[in-house]
Amino acid sequence: MAEGRGNRNHPRNLQGVLQMAVEAGSASEGPAPREPMTQERIEFLRGALAEVCKGQMDEVEQMKQCLEVLSRDECRARGSEEEEEEEEDEREEALEMLSELCENLDNARDLMKLGGLDLCMSRCLCHSEAGIRWRAAHLIASCAQNMPEVQFYLLNQGALLTLLQLADHDANSTVRVKALYAVSCLVREQEAGLRDFLSHDGFSVLMRGMQSDSEKLRTKSAFLLLNLLTSHPEHKDTVLSMGMVQQLVSVLRSPHSSVHEHVLGALCCLVEDSPRGVNDCRDASLGLEELLNQRVQDLKGREESLEELDCCVRLLAACFQGQPQDGNEMDR
Fold it and tell me: Which of 300, 299, 332 is nearest to 316 (CA)?
């Protein structure tokens, strides 16, 4: 059997693949006498193959056209305000089209080879229009997600630092959210990206993101923090030394929202096998024990909040059960 597989002739092109699929389909129906393919069948398969090739070429051509729009010289003589708005609309549409096309991993790789990622970083991430900046960040995220080849390329081009700066300082909240999304695609499950993230003080960016007025930015910052602490518990001490426990408790005191589940999860990570994390949570000035007890009462009976409730119970058990009683401690 192994010898037979070693002698198998593998298809060298799409037509060969298609022929092999037809043969495999016939084989699954049981042995049958092999008959010559009719001319009608041959023409049909040729047409199908041509459409497959044409579709792939069409997508590459679409990407080239989008890059042509993004490459236009903006320093040329300015037209009317209406013409300028039309040009901005065209650039935004080009970025949206590229993001959609690059959900296909082959297209993401092709865009990199066409110089599209360089163009995105050099012209679009720093563009004066927020609509261009956030769409460029979204495109980078689309290309980088689950694509180590593209991730390494972007990291080598210094994309992570630019994205962290946008996530930290951009005046537009959508730009900050999309930039953080791109950061997440470059550092999660990516050791080189995490090293880059640490060298640029990325945890401080997440801390400030959780203090933002933007609910989406707070949520994405807390989620990425939780993910990194779960995957890389060796960085707990770095995070604790920044005063992260105090910041997370401060977020918990804000009006209840979806971000709280991620914040509580991050606190659970910080106290697990960490005396320093436990001691930080016991700081009487934080009032965390009372806050957690109140949250347990608020969440009881809410099926959609079971994970958040579980985190509260785990934190109470890890940090406060068995502590010496004092006169100011609330009754339990």
Answer: 332
The tens-digit pLDDT sequence of the chain (332 residues) is: 444 444 444 444 444 545 555 555 554 455 544 566 677 776 676 666 655 554 556 899 999 999 999 998 765 545 677 788 888 999 999 999 999 999 999 999 999 999 999 999 999 999 999 999 999 999 999 999 989 999 999 999 999 999 999 999 999 999 999 999 999 999 998 999 999 999 999 999 999 999 999 999 999 999 999 999 999 999 999 999 999 999 999 999 999 999 999 999 999 999 999 999 999 999 999 999 999 999 999 999 888 899 999 999 999 999 998 665 454 444 43
Relative orientation angle of helices 202-209 and 191-199, to the nearest 10 degrees: 80
Give the list of residues 6+ apart from residue 168 with CB closer than 8 angstroms, or none: 176, 205, 208, 209
Nearest to 45 by CA among 8, 11, 20: 20
| Amino acid at the residue 275 | P
The fold of 88-200 is Leucine-rich Repeat Variant (1.25.10)
Phi/psi for 195 (5° steps) reads -60, -40
CA–CA separation, 197 and 30 (whole Å): 56
Sign (positive or negative) of CA dihedral 77, 79, 81, 84: negative
**Measured distance CA(37)–CA(41) in Å, rounded:** 6
State residue 162 phi and psi, 5-degree precision: -60, -45
HSE, side-chain direction, 13 A CA sphere, residue 330: 11
Q: Where are the domains of the chain?
A: 88-200
Q: What is the pTM of this model?
A: 0.79
